[in-house]
Every structure is written in C-alpha cells, then in structure tokens.
Structure to design on (263 residues):
C-alpha cells in the first residue's frame, strides 16, 4: 500500500495553474484574481478562474454569473462563462444567501469536486482564487495540485504584510514557485484631483518586505473607488474601463506572470 501524502497532479485539460493567495482576508485577492484572469483572456489565452473559497465565494458576483452548472456527458461540471473567462465556484452550487455550514470533510469533498470534476474543455491558464488563511484548503491545494506558481497579495500595512509572510512561508515549504507580490490598495488616488495618498502605509514597507524575502514586486494597484464599484456591479475594471491606468496595471501584472510561467 502506498503511504504518505497523495501525489501532486495537474488539473485535467489545463496547461498552467496559478494561485492568488494571502493569509489575510479582505486584501483584494478575488478582485485581483478576476482582473488578472480577464487580462489573460484579453491577451488571447484560453482562461479559467476557480473560486476555491468554499465559505465566501466571490467569483459569481465579480463575473455577474449565477445558476446551477450543467453536467457534461461524463458527469463533470460545465463551467459558466462571462467576458471570455470560464469559471467554477461553490456559489453556483448553493443558493446565494445560504451559509455553507460544513465541517472539514464536507469542505474537502467539495474542494475535490471543484479541483478534479470540472470539464474545462482546454485552458491555457487557470487562476485559483484562494480563501484567506493557511488552513485545510490551502494545504490540500498546495499538496495535491501541480501549481506553476503563486502570487501573494498584500496591502502595504504591517498588519497585512505579517500575514502575507505566512503565505510566503507556506508556499516555500511545499516548494511552489513564488511568482511575486502584488501590493494592493497601495495608495488612494483622489478621483477629483488625481493626487496620491498612502492610506495603508508607505510603499517602502512593501519594497523592504520583498527584499527581505527575495520576492519580486509584480506591481502596485491603487485604492480607487471605481475598482470597488466595478467589482460590485459584476464588470471588473479590466473589462469595465480597459483604457484606464488601473486596468493597464492589471494587464502589466498579467503579462509579467504569463512570462514567468511560460504561457
Ligand atoms: N484596489 C482596490 N481599490 C478599491 N477597492 C478595492 C481594491 N481591491 C479590492 N477592493 C475592494 O475591497 C474589498 C475586498 O476585496 P476582495 O473581496 O477582492 O478581497 P479578498 O482578499 O478576496 O477577500 P476574502 O479574504 O474575503 O476572500 C471588496 O469590496 C473590493 O471591491
Ligand atoms: Mg476573496
């Protein structure tokens, strides 16, 4: 009998898998994951996004999608698509306002289904939107899935950076390549006068942390009201205002990530 951890395996029909992560909640993982996925799609890559947040799925809202997925002839979940990106989320499988009140085993079962029972139909890249923390879901994904890399999201605040370091250590421990860090809400850009205010602390905190942990700084996304509004109305910035400076920042990060994983 084979012992130890299960072997890592790829996700069927998917060339590259990239996880967007942070041990801290609410720092913009889902917002950045979806805008990166949309940027990959705009660059002509067949793209999917997998919402690995079982308790608080965000992708249905961010992509303005709902409804139960169909099953394919081989009993696999068929992803729902919008703006050229395929997606799968626990949010499609349970009614919107129902809380998922599950213990570990049920969560693991749902995660297995999301990871291995979706008919992606051929993707160049799949973005994984991870839940906050360094618990069961993160461990299962890092130990079972062949990840091409992880992107860490943090604000420049010390409180957030401390948690980001936990995420960095987790990926290092399980030998997942760290592609770099995205500094989110790096500064507030006043929509009236375009002046920049570092609400969550100096950008120097981020560069210091990157230096210390030998992390690449992939880019800085400003704190801007329209990033939040675009997300809420289910039309993320990259598709809502593709010509904006903000959308261009997402595009630049996606291009850098694409190069790093050999897309
Ligand atoms: N750069 C930004 N500018 C303005 N608002 C932002 C920005 N990034 C994220 N937000 C907003 O911050 C909130 C949290 O973002 P999001 O849900 O993406 O974070 P998260 O890290 O995925 O959270 P969770 O840990 O709960 O999964 C949302 O309301 C989102 O619209
Ligand atoms: Mg999220």
């Amino acid at each position: 009998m084979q012992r130890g951890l299960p072997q890592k395996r790829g996700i069927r029909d998917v060339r590259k898998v990239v996880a967007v992560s942070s041990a801290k909640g609410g720092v913009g993982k889902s917002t950045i994951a979806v805008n990166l996925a949309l940027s990959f799609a705009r660059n002509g890559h067949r793209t999917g996004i997998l919402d690995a947040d079982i308790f608080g799925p965000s992708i249905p809202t961010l992509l303005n999608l709902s409804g139960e997925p169909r099953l394919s002839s081989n009993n696999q979940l068929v992803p729902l698509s919008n703006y050229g990106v395929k997606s799968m989320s626990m949010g499609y499988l349970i009614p919107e306002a129902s809380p998922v009140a599950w213990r570990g085993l049920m969560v693991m079962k749902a995660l297995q289904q999301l990871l291995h029972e979706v008919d992606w139909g051929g993707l160049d890249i799949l973005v994984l939107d991870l839940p906050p923390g360094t618990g069961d879901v993160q461990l299962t994904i890092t130990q079972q899935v062949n990840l091409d890399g992880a992107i860490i999201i943090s604000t420049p605040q010390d409180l957030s950076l401390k948690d980001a370091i936990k995420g960095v250590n987790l990926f290092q421990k399980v030998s997942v390549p760290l592609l770099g860090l995205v500094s989110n809400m790096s500064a507030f850009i006043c929509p009236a006068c375009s002046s920049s205010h570092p609400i969550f602390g100096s950008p120097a905190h981020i560069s210091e942390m990157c230096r210390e942990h030998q992390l690449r700084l992939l880019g800085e996304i400003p704190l801007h009201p329209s990033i939040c509004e675009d997300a809420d109305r289910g039309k993320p910035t990259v598709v809502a205002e593709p010509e904006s400076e903000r959308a261009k920042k997402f595009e630049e990060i996606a291009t850098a990530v694409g190069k790093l994983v050999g897309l």
Q: What stands out?
A: Residues 29-30, 53, 58, 129 surround magnesium ion (ligand 2) (CB under 6 Å). Strands lie at 14-21, 47-51, 80-82, 85-89, 123-129, 149-154, 178-189, 196-197, 217-223.
